[in-house]
Design brief:
Blueprint lengths: L2 H22 E4 L3 E7 L2 E4 L5 E4 L5 E7 L3 E4 L3 E4 L5 E12 L2 H8 L3 H21 L3 H5 L3 H17 L3 E12 L2 H73 L1 H16 L17 H7 L7
Antiparallel strand pairs: 1-4, 2-3, 2-5, 6-8, 7-8, 8-9
Helix pairs in contact: 3-5, 6-7
């Protein structure tokens, strides 16, 4: 064997050794779970995170997600004890606990695992809702439903190598047709209440308006009565003064009244009076023209 062939052989041996070494070592991440197979049969499943060894070409390793997983189930319709349908949307938190049992039960397929998990959870929820009314399911007994479901489902899911961490109901709704009917009834009730309040408000407004009108009329009547009283007192005072003035100097008082009559009658040059010249109205005008006048 010449030198060139020796170098090629050594290089091939080194490469083969490296390949064997690479195929003999595998690393398990802390977020993973691993299974060791020998000729297709499960040999070991209790691997801790770190570096491990296997027989190349004979043993193989399959890894699975060891983190918390979520089954977001589609909305299911359940029947309550009142024989009424409710639409329930829920999710399940789970993770692989025994990777060996998990592989044997599901073949290592997460979709198969979720389908089998849903097949366990759904009947449990159906039974819980079937023993309760809608009011009980929606209000304070939701936590009780979850607790009872987890207790009944834990033993079943453990057969799948799965740990059930949490089950939560996201929403509980009535079917669309029922919801629309309830909404219509609620709207009719609110409309009736609004109409009743509006009618009461209108009635109260009419009462306030009538009271205000009555108060205004009373105030006007009181003011008119007071005004008439004051006017009467004024007229009486005027009459009293006039009587005293007339009694003290009748001639002057008659002359004063005549002047006021002349002033009121001849305010405008266009005013026209048709009177007899010898009438009593021109008495003082005649006296003024003759040089006479009233006695002071």
């Amino acid at each position: 064997m010449n030198t060139s062939n020796k170098q090629t052989f050594v290089l091939a041996a080194v490469i083969a050794g490296l390949l064997l070494l690479v195929n003999s070592v595998f690393v398990v991440d802390q977020r993973e779970k691993a299974l060791l197979f020998k000729f297709g049969e499960v040999q070991r499943s209790d691997f801790t995170p770190g570096v491990h060894f296997k027989l190349p070409m004979i043993e193989s390793v399959k890894k699975f997600d060891g983190r918390l997983l979520t089954l977001d189930n589609k909305t299911e319709t359940f029947l309550t004890v009142e024989k009424k349908n409710v639409e329930v949307d829920f999710f399940v938190k789970w993770r692989i606990k025994d990777v060996g049992n998990y592989y044997r039960a599901t073949g290592g397929d997460d979709l198969v695992a979720e389908n089998r998990l849903a097949a366990i959870i759904n009947p449990g929820l159906r039974a819980e809702f079937g023993s309760r009314t809608i009011q009980q399911a929606i209000s304070g007994e939701r936590d009780e439903i979850m607790t009872a479901l987890e207790k009944s489902a834990t033993s079943k899911v453990s057969e799948l190598g799965i740990e059930l961490v949490d089950v939560r109901i996201k929403s509980i709704n009535l079917p669309r047709a029922v919801s629309e009917s309830v909404y219509q009834r609620m709207r009719a009730e609110r409309t009736r209440v609004a109409s009743d309040l509006r009618a009461r408000g209108f009635e109260e407004a009419e009462k306030i308006k009538a009271e205000a009108d009555r108060s205004a009329q009373t105030s006007i009547a009181d003011a008119y009565r007071e005004a008439e009283k004051l006017r009467g007192e004024g007229d009486a005072k005027t009459a009293e003064i006039s009587a005293k003035a007339y009694g003290s100097d009748q001639e002057f008082y008659a002359f004063y009244r005549a002047l006021n009559a002349y002033r009121d009658s001849f305010r405008d040059q266009k005013d026209v009076l048709v009177l007899e010249p010898d009438g009593e109205f021109f008495k003082y005008l005649k006296q003024s023209g003759e040089g006479g006048g009233p006695r002071r």
